[in-house]
Specification:
It is built from 15 helices and 15 strands. It has helices spanning 2-10, 27-36, 67-80, 88-100, 111-124, 144-156, 164-171, 200-206, 224-237, 252-261, 276-284, 306-313, 344-355, 359-372, 375-391; strands at 13-17, 20-21, 41-46, 48-49, 60-62, 103-109, 128-132, 158-161, 180-182, 210-215, 241-246, 268-272, 288-291, 317-321, 337-339. The chain is α/β, with parallel strands linked by helices. The longest helix is centred in the last third of the chain and has 17 residues, at 375-391. The chain has two domains: 2-186 and 375-391, Rossmann fold (3-Layer(aba) Sandwich), CATH 3.40.50.2000; 200-372, Glycogen Phosphorylase B (Rossmann fold), CATH 3.40.50.2000.
Length: 400
């Protein structure tokens, strides 16, 4: 135990900052923390704790917001025309933690939280790495105050975009290409292992049930409405198909009602929020994975949904959309299928094509994830980004 502690003490400390630790949809943060621990001593800085039974971690430093903190933050934002601002007492607290823990680098997830912690990094004169995932590099870019404040971040931090689509949107509002890198989150292929399964084309010939699956929050950009509409037509053509929708969220009740109106409630199963282990079991028993991402009415977009990489890793054929970074992982007609957003007939056609697939499709999908979107590979590249930030290199960042 003493030797282990001594080895940890020799590692450079880095801090991962995000406002909320840790929602089920942010498993990627947890995976990166453990990936970084091989070379660094990561600590977590946050304002709110949840799901510690699912994501146990030490050390975590939490500074909750009270009523006066919110008032001070609001005044700071109003007076200085900022989108995001920590109250002074929080800035002082995080500066003390950074100093006491000898933190050498801060990694913030999501644009608004990177803006919050930027004054701390500047004051302590340490590098800041900021990862942009989706909504904050799409919907929020409609807010001129947010965009103006982002330029302060772009001048100081190394910016990580989780897809080329996210990168181009950030460059469009002033991000410097030389300080921006595309870095994929990656899927843990050792957990989402390839599953030998009978090809959909064989199941169709033999009249066997075929299981479709989607795992995602019930929010507008996940496109559940279009999946349900397409499946209402698919069921009339292929009587042995079933659809499982895993996840929870504000639109779940509305989607359940839509299934009842379309008289397909007996063919669509809602299983609620699932853990990683439960998602793996669902994928292992499925034949085809669907994920009809769309740009929401408010402008919210995906980055590159990690769940697609996870499904492909198990050998599932994925039917998705030409949306944000999704075409960066799916080659249409080679290892999956892509359709235009909200195109029900095109979606229906792609589902039919997926039913004709041999097992070669799933094998190609799994091989691609193993070679390019493997979590271990991508975590290694993240450490290279940390090394570059710590070294103070000024040359353009090579893409990951």
């Amino acid at each position: 135990m003493v030797s282990s502690m001594s080895n940890d003490d020799k590692k450079q400390a880095i801090a991962v900052y995000l406002r909320y630790y840790l929602s089920i949809s942010m498993t990627f943060v947890y995976r990166q923390l453990h990936g970084a621990a091989s070379r660094f001593r990561p600590i977590v800085l946050t304002s709110s704790l949840s799901n510690l039974d699912i994501f146990p971690y030490e050390p975590i430093y939490a500074k909750e917001w009270n009523f006066f903190d919110r008032v001070q933050s609001r005044l700071e934002r109003l007076l200085k025309r900022k989108y995001a601002a920590l109250p002074p007492i929080h800035i002082r607290y995080w500066k003390r933690i950074v100093r006491e823990q000898k933190v050498r680098l801060i990694h913030a997830h999501f644009g608004p939280y990177a803006l919050e912690i930027l004054p701390v990094a500047r004051a302590m004169r340490i590098p800041l790495v900021a990862t942009f995932h989706g909504f904050e590099a799409s919907m929020l870019l409609r807010n001129p105050i947010y965009v103006a404040q982002l330029r302060e971040l772009f001048d100081y931090a190394i910016i990580i975009a989780v897809s080329r689509g996210v990168a181009e949107r950030l460059i469009g509002v002033g991000a410097d290409r030389s300080r921006l890198v595309v870095h994929y989150i990656g899927a843990p292929v050792e957990n989402f292992r390839y599953v030998e399964r009978k090809a959909p084309s064989e199941k169709v010939k033999e009249g066997l049930p075929i299981e479709f699956l989607q795992v995602s929050n019930f929010v507008e950009k996940k496109g559940h409405r279009y999946t349900i509409e397409a499946f209402s037509k698919l069921f009339s053509r292929y009587s042995n198909c079933n659809l499982t929708l895993a996840g929870d969220g504000p639109l779940r009740g509305e989607m359940e009602a839509l299934c009842r109106r379309m008289n397909i409630e007996d063919r669509v199963r809602f299983v609620g929020r699932v853990t990683t282990d439960q998602a793996i079991r669902l994928m292992s028993n499925a034949d085809i994975f669907v994920h009809h991402s769309v740009i929401s009415e408010a402008g919210d977009q995906e980055g590159l949904p990690t769940v697609i990489a996870e499904a492909m890793s198990t050998g599932l054929i994925v039917v998705s959309t030409r949306h944000s970074g999704i075409p960066e992982i799916i080659d249409h007609g080679v290892d999956g299928f892509l359709v235009e957003e909200r195109d029900i007939e095109g979606y229906l056609s792609a589902l039919g094509s997926a039913l004709e697939c041999t097992d070669a499709f799933g094998r190609r999908a799994a091989e691609k994830v193993k070679s390019k979107f493997n979590l271990d590979v991508q975590n290694g590249k993240l450490l290279e980004i940390y090394d570059r930030a710590l070294s103070g290199q000024k040359d353009p960042i090579a893409p990951c």
